[in-house]
Design goal:
The protein is an alpha/beta fold and 342 residues long. The protein has 2 domains: 237 residues, 3-Layer(aba) Sandwich (Aspartate Aminotransferase, domain 2); 91 residues, Aspartate Aminotransferase, domain 1 (Alpha-Beta Complex). It is built from 14 helices and 12 strands. The strands form 3 sheets. Strands 2-8-7-6-5-3-4 form a 7-stranded mixed beta sheet, sandwiched between helices. Strands 9-12-11 form a 3-stranded antiparallel beta sheet. Helix 12 packs parallel to helix 14. The chain is globular. The protein starts with a strand and ends with a helix.
Length: 342
Amino acid sequence: MPIDLRSDTITQPTPAMREAMASAEVGDDVFGDDPTVARLEARVAEILGKEAALFTPSGTMANQLALRAQTHAGDEILIDANAHIYYYESGAPAALAGVMCRCLPGVRGIFSAADVESALRPSDQHFPPTKLVCLENTHNRGGGSIWPIDRIREIAELCRRHDLRVHLDGARLWNASVATGISERDYAAHFDSVSVCFSKGLGAPVGSALCGTRETIARARRFRKMYGGGMRQAGIIAAGALYALEHHRQRLSEDHANARALAQGLSRLPGVELDPDSVQTNMLFIRVPKFPAATLVRSLDEAGVRVLAVGPDTIRAVTSLMVLPADIPAAVKIFESVLKRA
């Protein structure tokens, strides 16, 4: 079997998770009758300290529901230029919510309160009204970077003064919490809405959730139906998410340790540019300036390591539930062999 480092979305459900899914009590969730979905929504809202939660098929849908529920067509949102919502969600902010994205120059996805303040427009009929600021923690294209809690607090306080709402794309918030020891509730306290994902590091096969006030979630529920996200006997997949939530959060530290070990091993190879100290969670970006990344990725795949090219000379590797400690030295050896032949 290849060592699959493409993403933490490739995780497979464990036998215990499959058992929980097979025995799940179900109902029609669009009617509000699915007890397992209800338990999942109540539990994730409790963990994040929010009034309500909504189970969604994907993180993209959860994010886009947050935008649609908290803005109107023609509004503007402020967001990092490399944020998942802007970069990887198929133009959905414009297509579904009708909002403009004004991009901020984050460093590894992280910007400051001063960046937000300098982007605020005066109240004038020529300009779209700014209504929402979006953060991403951990930040995908930032290499799994973690937002400092003090920076989050400063931005949230600024937004309150300017009557702006704040959304967190927390697809990998679980990773940030495990890495820092700061609870998900403490992170979430600074946001009006938070999306979280169950199908990445937690290992569930399907699902995310959007959390916020009862009013926001009620609006989001209607838009979920509009977007085709209303599910029927969804308790089967909700049971997998609930199992992951209760059993797989703390084990994320294993993924982080594997990512650091991989970074340390790769950083010693000729032709690789990688600072192991930059690896904060389960993701690393590997620069190979002497080689075309796409060609190298193909050669690595043939040799038994699967990674992604994310730039002309940059490769991304992500550790997950499917990557064992013993896979790390094996992956480093394969990298070394392929680089020698390249």
